[in-house]
Design brief:
The structure holds 2 protein chains of 2 kinds. Chain A has 17 helices and 3 strands. The longest helix of chain A is centred in the first third of the chain and has 53 residues. Chain A has a 3-stranded antiparallel sheet. By secondary structure, chain A is mainly alpha-helical. Chain B has 16 helices and 2 strands. In chain B, about 75% of the residues lie in helices and about 0% in strands. Chain B has 2 domains: about 160 residues, no CATH class; about 230 residues, MetI-like (MetI-like fold), CATH 1.10.3720.10. The relative contact order of chain B is 0.09. By secondary structure, chain B is an all-alpha fold. Chain B has a two-stranded antiparallel ribbon. In chain B, helix 1 runs antiparallel to helix 2, helix 2 runs parallel beside helix 6 and helix 12 packs antiparallel against helix 13. Classes of the chains: A mainly alpha, B mainly alpha. Chains A and B meet through helix 1, helix 9, helix 10, helix 11 and helix 12 of A and helix 6, helix 8, helix 9, helix 10 and helix 11 of B.
């Protein structure tokens, strides 16, 4: 037996001896990989489930039917009230009277005060709306469904966090709810108000329409600025820019700008657009400008990639037939790159929709009840509304925060789905 | 006539200029024997007329608008008698502001204030004249431009070249918006920071260890002066970012390794979109989750094992931020790992190494520069992240390395200093810009290094 074979036998033995250990290590390593991926997926699932579980109750709201005596004199309305008079009237005392009539056993002052809190302060508005819709109700006793207070609503649907509350006041409300329920005066309905109203101090009457419209106006401004500028910049850098220092600087700049923290764009917004150009604070106009500067790098980078993927043979053919450079690009290269450009733009818009930090800086955090009607009206946006509500101690606001997050996520999913669809439908592999 | 109307008129002039020029070019072409005899297609003559009508008029409006306010203000302020104007700048600014509000109809005029009334009436008169003059001039300019373009139509006129030259310049301007943005950020942050360092010495800001920016509201108040030592903020930012990176780097890297080297296509097609969803969730949602679910849970667990966990602990914010960065680290590492040539893996596997040995001893060392670049980018992201810390970390400027205590960060302080109503000139607001400068410079350095490292790494294997 030669020396070599002995050595190789030894080597084989050494390798075989260590093999079990090495395979075990291989399995452990693989398991770590599986664990890492599962951690992310599990967190995602946990996050979504916890938010959905919290948010779903907000889509239900509780109404109470009250028999309200709408006496023209008691309401201090004029003799022949116009619709405007009816809509401006105050109906709080009539509502209080009807509550007292409903529960004649309530006599003590403390109990009365608790009783008045059974319905939301928004109920007065609802009575006014009912009167405007049907002025004949005046001087009759009308049965009107009004919004219940948020805590009463939680008790009425027996929310889990109310089950341990056993104090006297809560018990009284429970019996009152049971009485109302026995008379079919309690109804749990879908919360349309949530989509029809702006912000409110009362959680049961707070809605996200103001925030949705604010987001819409902001995104509109963002899109109108960042899409044309982004595409033009991408075309210039990809097709025209001479290789020199200036274009180098622009390139490095765009890459760096994509990684600048969003809050710094907010500082830019305050210093330049609000303090220097005196644009209105809290307006979607300024928010849109700031967000468009922020999404510009995303759009430019995506558009350049899309332009680069169009084969040069197409441009060569057009140029060979005598088209000018700009004709070649606008007639041939851009249309072929458009699906990619649009995908990038939609992804940029989705980022802008979820962004909130720079908007805090420019004052889009104000408490705004009115639904904005233009780009210069004070407004807030969906993610900032989430931030505002998350600070409120009321449990009902936590539910509404989660519900607003659900709406935000639905919009984001729709936008991303559209981007995926565009890519699948129109992307061409050359 | 409001400004929007004159804008509409100018737009209409441009549009009709376009159609008339195109029509005229067609007629000229017919007279000369067909479109082929023109230098450019008739469409380009139309475009040129539109550009000539629109661009000079809009430029005029823009420059006029920029200049008119200062001129009007100066003229109105000249009405103020000297005894009042000697009272100082802030008094005058207040007066001017009042006059502006009254003139705009936002505020009712103060009764019996003759000076204010005369100033308001002059301001309104000047504003009216200015509006009329600039609208008229702009409209005349638009008409002149369109007519000039119409006159120039002849077969030799190189309309297409001119239009394309204009388009090129417009595109160059669009491309330089990115540079202007950077310039704007640097200038605005720097300018306000210099003003801040005029009030608070830079050494106190950079080296001080006490942060409480509550300046007194009235001059005679006894309250503290406010101190601006930013070290606790830097420490807090580092602590939370470190926690985030400790979570994100191993998990993100391992996920990337698993997904690129091991996972079956079915697993990939499920796990990759999940990662992308994680990356697409708005940060405010993470913040909400950190503040309302993770922080109370940590506090609860801490209590059961006898630890006191602050309800705004650095740990909660850091953990959730870490999860937020996982997809970022993972997708960057993914690119980097894919760039390692297959031949290197094959060589190692051919020598009998197991897959994990190949990854650990060949692929990762080869990909290390790229991975480091990715980690640096992730760090810059963690430092600049705002919403999670605003919602889940506190305002208490503690200097601690204990992750169970509450700390505050640079971004949290910027938000708290700048939201709410206060004077723009106070040290408190200006401090936000100084912090912003620090943030911008730090993240810029990290980004530049990271992008450089990643690019060098890519070139190595290309």
């Amino acid at each position: 037996m030669s020396e070599e074979t002995i050595n190789s036998r030894n080597t084989t033995a050494v390798v075989e001896a260590g093999l079990a250990k090495r395979y075990a290590r291989e399995r452990r390593f693989r398991l770590m990989g599986v664990a890492a991926v599962s951690v992310s997926v599990a967190f995602l699932a946990f996050l979504l489930i916890s938010i959905f579980a919290k948010g779903i109750p907000a889509f239900k709201t509780t109404y109470v039917k009250l028999d309200i005596t709408l006496d023209q004199k008691a309401l201090r309305l004029p003799e022949q009230p116009s619709l405007q008079d009816l809509s401006r009237g105050r109906y709080d005392s009539a509502i209080k009277k009807s509550l007292l009539a409903q529960f004649p056993e309530v006599t003590s002052r403390k109990e009365k005060r608790a009783l008045y809190k059974l319905v939301s302060s928004y109920a007065s508005r609802q009575v006014a709306d009912a009167l405007v819709a049907n002025p004949d109700l005046l001087n009759t006793t009308a049965s009107i469904w009004v919004l219940a207070d948020d805590e009463v609503a939680a008790l009425a649907r027996n929310a889990d966090y109310t089950q341990n509350k056993k104090d006297a006041g809560t018990e009284l409300i429970r019996t009152q709810i049971e009485q109302l329920r026995a008379e079919d005066r309690i109804d749990i309905r879908f919360n349309w108000l949530f989509f029809q109203r702006g912000d409110s101090r009362e959680p049961e009457a707070a809605g996200i329409k103001g925030a949705i419209m604010g987001s819409l106006y902001t995104l509109m401004v963002t899109l109108m600025l960042s899409f044309p500028i982004g595409v033009a910049a991408a075309v210039y850098l990809e097709e025209f820019a001479p290789k020199n220092r200036l274009t180098d600087i622009i390139e490095v700049n765009i890459n760096n700008l994509a990684a600048v923290p969003s809050i710094v764009f907010g500082l830019l917004g305050v210093a330049v657009f609000i303090n220097f150009f005196h644009l209105p604070r809290s307006a979607p106009l300024v928010g849109g400008i700031v967000l468009s500067l922020m999404t510009l790098p995303t759009i430019i980078i995506a558009s350049r990639a899309a332009l680069k993927s169009v084969p040069p043979s197409i441009a060569d053919a057009a140029l060979g037939l005598g088209a000018s450079k700009i004709q070649t690009i606008t007639h041939h290269v851009l249309p072929l790159a458009m699906p990619g450009i649009l995908t990038g733009t939609i992804i940029g818009m989705a980022q802008a929709l979820g962004e909130s930090a720079p908007l805090l800086m420019i004052g889009m955090v104000a408490f705004i009840v009115d639904v904005p009607a233009g780009v210069t009206d004070p407004a807030t946006v969906l993610p900032v509304q989430v931030y505002l509500w998350s600070d409120s101690p009321e449990r009902a606001f936590t539910e509404r925060t989660s519900a607003a997050i659900m709406v935000l996520l639905v919009f984001l999913i729709l936008m991303n789905a559209l981007a995926v669809l565009l890519r699948k439908q129109f992307e061409r592999r050359w | 006539m409001p400004l929007s109307n004159s804008l509409l008129i100018i737009l209409a002039i441009a549009l009709s200029g376009f159609f008339m020029a195109r029509h005229r070019a067609n007629t000229v072409a017919l007279a000369n024997g067909g479109t082929a005899k023109l230098h450019s297609l008739p469409l380009y003559y139309g475009y040129l007329a539109g550009i000539w009508a629109l661009v000079p008029a809009l430029l005029l409006l823009a420059f006029w608008g920029a200049a008119e306010n200062t001129i009007i203000d100066r003229s109105v302020m000249s009405l103020v008698p000297t005894e009042i104007s000697q009272q100082g700048g802030s008094q005058m600014a207040l007066l001017l502001n009042q006059v502006k509000n009254v003139a705009a109809g936002a505020v009712d005029p103060t009764a019996d204030d003759m000076l204010q009334a005369s100033m308001v009436s002059r301001m309104q008169a000047l504003q009216g004249t200015s509006l009329l003059a600039k609208s008229a001039l702009a409209i005349i300019l638009a008409i002149c431009g369109a007519v000039w373009a119409l006159k120039n139509i002849n077969p030799e006129y190189r309309a297409r070249v001119k239009v394309e030259g204009f388009v090129r310049i417009a595109m160059l301007l669009c491309a330089s918006v990115a540079v202007l943005t950077t310039l704007g950020i640097v200038l605005s942050v720097l300018f306000e920071s210099v003003r801040f360092f005029g009030k608070v010495p830079i050494s106190e800001f950079m080296l001080g260890t006490h942060w409480s920016p509550q300046t007194s509201i009235r001059a005679d108040q006894v309250a503290s002066e406010g101190s601006f030592g930013a070290i606790p903020l830097f420490a807090g930012t580092m602590l939370i970012s470190a926690i985030a990176l400790i979570v994100a780097v191993p998990i993100g890297l391992m996920s990337a390794i698993y997904l690129t080297e091991y996972a079956k296509p079915q697993v990939r097609s499920f796990a990759k979109p999940a990662m992308e969803i994680l990356a697409g969730i708005p940060t405010v949602v993470y913040g909400f989750f950190a503040a309302l679910t993770v922080a109370p849970a940590l506090r609860g667990w801490g209590e059961t094992i006898g630890l006191s966990v602050s309800s705004e602990s650095a740990l909660a914010a850091g953990l959730v931020m870490g999860v937020m960065i996982i997809p970022f680290v993972s997708s960057l590492s993914d690119d980097v790992l894919n760039a390692v040539p297959q031949t290197m893996r094959d060589g190692s596997l051919g020598l009998g190494a197991t897959k994990s040995e190949t990854i650990r001893q060949v692929v990762i060392p080869a990909a290390l520069p790229g991975i480091v670049g990715g980690v640096l980018l992730a760090a810059s992201r963690a430092i600049g992240e705002t919403m999670i810390v605003v919602m889940a970390a506190g305002l208490a400027a503690n200097m601690t390395v204990n992750p169970l205590e509450a700390v505050t960060t640079v971004t949290v302080q910027i938000v708290t200093l700048l939201t709410g109503d206060q004077e723009f000139d106070s040290a408190k607001t200006l401090a936000a810009f100084a912090l912003g400068l620090m943030l911008f410079v730090t993240t810029l350095i990290l980004n530049v290094i990271a992008l450089h490292v990643v690019r060098k790494y890519r070139e190595q294997y290309e």
